[in-house]
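User: ok so my PI wants both of these folded by tonight, can you help

Assistant: No problem, let's get them done. Here's the first:
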Amino acid sequence: MTEEQAGPRNVDPPEKFASNANVSDPFVYEAADKDYEGFWADRARELHWFKEWDTTLNWSPPEAEWFVGGRTNVAYNCLDHQVEQGRGDKTALVWEGDEPSDSKTYTYSELLAEVQKFANVLKSLGAERGKPVSIYMPMIPELPVAMLACARIGAPHSIVFGAFSASALRDRINDCEATILVTADAAPRGGKATPLKANADEALEDTPSIENVVVVRRTGDDAPLTEGRDHYYDELMKDAEAECPAEEMDSEDLLFILYSSGSTGKPKGIVHTTGGYLTHVNATMKWTFDIKDDDVYWCTADIGWITGHSYLVYGPLSVGATTVQFEGTPAYPASDRWWDVIERNKVTILYTAPTAIRSFMKGGKEDLEKHDLTSLRLLGTVGEPINPRAWEWYHDNVGGGRCPIVDTWWQTETGGHMITPLPGITSTKPGSATRPFPGIDAGLFDEEGNEIEGEGSGNLVIKKPWPGMLRTLYKDPERYRETYWEKYGDVYFVGDGARRDEDGYYWITGRIDDVMNVSGHRISTAEVESALVGHEAVAESAVIGRNDEDKGQAIVAYVILEGDREGSDDLIQELNQQVRKVIGAHARPEEIIFAPDLPKTRSGKIMRRILRGVAEGQQDLGDTSTLADPSVVDSLQASRTNGS
């Protein structure tokens, strides 16, 4: 085992931090193991319930119901309950716009007032309990307002990341059959603007379920309205009623649908419900982030992804925290933008992706040294495994050697943290997510379904249900069973490989299916392949993720052209535009290799291991004897060497 794999050192919590930590007794693990249902019931009782549950858990694999019979409301917990506890004048949300001159703050009382009015707007447009609302927005305050308004009236929201294309938006709207779309004229980022309304209009040419569109004026860009269907947000809010009672939702009522890339290419509509999900994100906010009443907490994720749902909006607001929402990029208008945000707002907790950390490493310490970052007391990472060198740099330079790091492993499907340090009691190892959160029962299985005991490597699984778990895939319960439960039966198959060391610490080794992790975004190989084959010049394509120091993985596409077509720089640009149009800019290949053929077994299966090896410049590609035509490998290596 190399030092890079194992991590160069153990890092204990600083004494001062540990003495004030929310969790200071390691016995919490043992107590949760003895009675995990009781553990989660105790966490749930920290929320507001209109009616407490009758049964903590009904488990009929793979169907789970948590806090059965309980009634609560997520928006009530995040807003009304906080005001009732005396936080009405406390800052709930700090918004930092793309330009440093754009900023805004909302107290809990102000955010509650906005949410109630917009909830009434949605109701006036036909929104109701159980009917999904699609949201396609920039990172502006109206986005969490829209989420919370949906939660208040029981209308499930389906948020589509603002960088997704018109066709990706169309597919997601049609799958959930939303009747309302909330969007904006444009989305500024890094000094440029994405024309959201124009993209939405293109999508809406083929979305028969949509009846009303709400448009926020973000940039003032021209955004033509379709009469009778489209409405400006500010005009609707002007006339909206101020009071909107929160619906008493059943614990298992649908809270949101979030589409995630799947290995078949068709996005999966991951379903999260109300009581269990909120219990999970609330508990992990308190325990993983050690959140205190005076903390200023910044999760840098976009709300279009699960991290933004759980740890920018619902988690922080449910514990009464001050949460920072950032619209811009790390390097605009200058490369020290993030450190400026931290210094001005006196941010105490920073939660970000290893991709960002590696990017800052490349730029050196000069930008950091321009700013006072001593307000920071805790750092976190999310989205992909962090390599030990980046962990060390983050700890020593951003945290000044005084801030514990919580390296969190979890998924869109899990709702909240699954494997993570508890910063007051965990001795961390750079590069390891350490131990399962209390009440989470993780394990390793081999391919045959045998459990691996003690130290070893295998497929990561979760052996017992947990409150934040997805309940199904929207309108596709069969795919839910096949994807997560068919391989091992009554245990949840994660889709990641992992190694467990002699101390029981987990080291995530990456995806074992055909989903790539690019800068923390999960992108299906099949989805990119489908986009490429949609171009008239492409006969076949195969996409892999190659290791990349900055992004975690970079997308490499092997393309076989139709007939006697030849590859060219112009065609590469066309293919990149094709992927951008069908999926979004974040899915464009880093490299496109025009190939005469693909390495396939005699049964026709593409050997992605070989494609990955070629992309990474490996000379020894292992056994190629099972290929139908082993000479294809030489051709691929020659194609890449020639840069064609």
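One down. Here's the second:
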Amino acid sequence: MQPYSLPPELEFLESYLSDSATIYRSAQWLLSSFEAPVWEYNFGTANNHFLDWNVILDDGESLLHPKHKDLLEGLKQYLVVSTRNASDQLSETNAIGTQYQSFLLASHIVDHLIMNAAHFQLADCGLEGLSTKNLTEILRKIAISFDLEGFLDWEALVGDHCKHLINVTPRMLLEEILTKFPELKEITPEQEDENGLGITLEEIPYARAALYAHELFERQASGWHIRTRKLTSIVYSHSLFAKNGYRRSIKSLSVPVDDTKQWREFPAVRLTTNSQEHVLIDRFFNYQTALYRLGALHETGVPAPDIPNLKGILLYEPETAKSGRYRSLPSPVVLGAVKDSIEFHLKHGEHLISSFCLLALHSMHKNKPPGQFDHDELQTILRKETIAAGVKQVTMALKNTERVKLEYFTDMRSNASLMELVRVYIGGVQIVVGALMARRSGEMIDLQALTCLDSTEQWLLFLNRKSTTHTLGIRHPQARPIEPIAVQMIKNLIRMQKILKRIGYISEETSLFASPCLAGTRKFSKCTKGLFNRNMDFFCDYFEITTNKDGHRYYIRQHQLRRFFAMLFFHSSTFGGLETLQWMLAHTNRRHVWYYITESQSGATLMGPKAQFVAEYLHHKGSKSYEHLAKLLKDRYGTENFALVDIDELEDEITELMKEGKVAIEPEFFEDENGEQMRIVVKIFEDAA
């Protein structure tokens, strides 16, 4: 007997009348049969994609083995149900693009389960064995992962594979490779900051050599990089989807093309309080919804997590209050850096830029790179002020020049090299402009020499990095008032580029913080994140910025400088001993300055400067002005002598009190016989929950 079929006009009801055991066994994007060991599917792309279900679980058996029948059925149905209409899971009324996005979320979750099968005991317990704890573990992992690579432990897995390769590769072979390609030994400051491989910095050269020995590392036009596609197939071999994709390159393993050797004198103070990234709320909720859809399997009788366990994940909230955040710079570090930058500009800025331009002119006339001019030639080319400062050579970072760190930084601080001094100067300009303007690092990097100042030279013009919502990606130009001293420094850099273009050294003016090449070539590099940070590193080592108790130097970064303007505002009328910098705000009505600060930075961002200011005050000045806050903190520390308490820890505690609504810190303006005055007031809300 033929099965009954609906007339064409009622076919839309077919899904509602289907057997419950088959409702999630078909989809418009699934081109092969549901039972096929290899799925062929297409979400509207030019080419079809394939999914091989033959993956080995932790028990050594394939997912296709009969013992895993229920698990296989559940995972297949889960991928189908993930693409159904959210409000009506029986229908496929979603746009194909929307279905694909949902499919991707589910595929990431499936891969995470398969790759961690031993932890979740999938082989023995299947999907029904997933507890509330297991499910919230997955959500927690999503919450602290910045992207898919983080969720699937890309760098950590590559690090584990590197350890394995180092152990199985003859040490003699690794040494031979490093001797043949010495550049593999180089580790940049950025790589020190961003090493997420789980291996030590000393092991990174051997990891590169081991990867090269196993044909997983190659030299390209832009430098040495991992062969991501091949390495992906290895480290994600126990996955369904990830093994076939492309992953990002890993910065700590790459060796970029660079003709110079750049060191930092000391290890860097850690930039964040912990390794956790801020939660991306929209993305988190999308994954939470995708994970909850496992519950639809109960409709077909396929083993799935218990309903109470699934409901438990709806109650889970990411711990945003405990997320990693950028660590504050001690106020004396930033205040001192700004002071040193301004003084360096006033003493050396004009003649250093002029000397570099004169060298560039002679380079063009004699048709030889700047680095090939010797000491005697420099004596006749450079400004006399530059020679008097101690400059003897063009650069200390020429290729194949081997120097110990101590010599390099001692010579740099004795002003021996022109190129290093120019980079120190540009780093100083970055610090002053960055501190006084409180802009994002990307906005600073994007500043253009010819368009960053308005015609009155009183406003800084930039493209807002956070203004693309509902604008099709177009960033809005904005203008902010800028201090005269910062304008002087900016104009000196603009003057340099205009001269370089006029003499033909560069073809056109470029980004404001573009810098000359340390290798002594004619290259004049557009500002990038790496170059921007290196200029600041030069500055910090030249002026010997202080180190912490562990011997790590505070290498300044722009995201830390964003707090500075607010900090200077708080300090300007409260702390003593800041006469060198107070003039920056002396000509401006304080109330207007506060309006500018609150317009430029959100309330959440300003929590940091507020908490840091009060923490430093309690630590250095005692609790007399903030007695009520001191009593509140006494329960935590058992003392009101906060000179004994670590400032960072004290700042964190005050920040938490502000987030909980127990404390508020605000400026209070008043008039006295000397005119407008200000004090910082701490309000305690004793009844706050």
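The chain has 29 helices and eleven strands. The chain has four domains: 8-146+281-316, 154-256, 332-449+480-558, 584-684. Good luck tonight!
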